[in-house]
Amino acid sequence: MLTRLWRGLSTELLDAALRTKPLRRWALEQGERQLFQKYVVENREGLPAKAQEMRCRALVNLLRSVERALADGRVAPQARRSIIKEFIGGLLIGQAEPTQGFQERHGFDPPAFLTVSPTKRCNLRCKGCYASSSSADSATLEYSVFDRILKEKREAWGSHFTVIPGGEPLMYRSEGKDLYDVLEANPEQYFMMYTNGTLIDREAAAGWRSWATSPRLFRWKAGSGKPMSGGEAGCTPGFSGPWTI
């Protein structure tokens, strides 16, 4: 029912409806039921029941986080409409046709999202960094390859969600392009980026908020690292939290 409703109404109508608490709560409940039906009850991939329960729980938590952000007004109007169209409609509800085509060609479901680390460069040198990143490590994915990955996954199975860890993604530079160019060239995508936050100033934040394209969900992953020039990192050790613009 929720899928038919989402596909049958315009983004503007859905946006207006989800600003109403009773309708938003109803949509959340329907979404949770649909996810449970798909991953736990149907389990078309035949995966262990516990694994499917965990997948369902992770997506339900994402859905609830979106609902809380919509409820307290943290999301700008243009970003809110993109959440409705790309994140909920594209990722959580999904597009049946591209996914079905992928299943028929390969015999299994496509991944819900991809993780792409475009660079190992970082302006910090944190103890225990899982990527062993630093400013001295210049390993970088070419822009043309990065952009091709994003476009091909959308075309191949309707993928809307990409996770970008590091290195520090905001230090990405390739073929005269940076991460802002990547995101601007792919407005139909929803991104989650892990960043230490030290390269986002007020000017950069204001510029990102002005985009009328899809919202970018950041997760600050700060540690007790040190800048390459020495001294303490310009972020709070141990702080981790989401910021949606």
Descriptive account of the structure:
- With 245 residues, the protein is an alpha/beta fold.
- The chain folds into 2 domains: 2-94, no CATH class; 114-244.
- It contains 9 helices and 9 strands.
- The strands form 3 sheets. The chain has a 5-stranded mixed β-sheet.
- Strand 4 and strand 5 (177-178) form a beta hairpin.
- The longest helix has 23 residues, at 49-71.
- The two termini are 30 Å apart.
Key features of this structure:
245 residues; alpha/beta; 2 domains; 5-stranded mixed beta sheet; two-stranded antiparallel ribbon; 9 helices; 48% helix
Mean pLDDT: 75
Number of helices: 9
Domain count: the total is 2
Give the N-terminus to C-terminus distance in angstroms.
30 Å
Order of helices and strands: HHHHHHEEHEEEHEHEEE
The largest β sheet comes out as:
5 strands, mixed
**Class based on secondary structure composition and strand pairing:** alpha/beta
* Neighbour order of strands in the largest sheet: 1-3-6-7-9
Please provide the count of β strands.
9
Indicate the proportion of strand residues: 5-15%
Layout: helices, strands, pairs:
Blueprint: H1 2-8, H2 11-18, H3 21-42, H4 49-71, H5 77-93, H6 96-106, E1 114-115, E2 124-125, H7 143-157, E3 161-164, E4 173-174, E5 177-178, H8 179-184, E6 190-195, H9 202-209, E7 216-221, E8 226-227, E9 240-244
Parallel strand pairs: 1-3, 3-6, 6-7
Antiparallel strand pairs: 2-8, 4-5, 7-9
Helix pairs in contact: 2-5, 3-4, 4-5
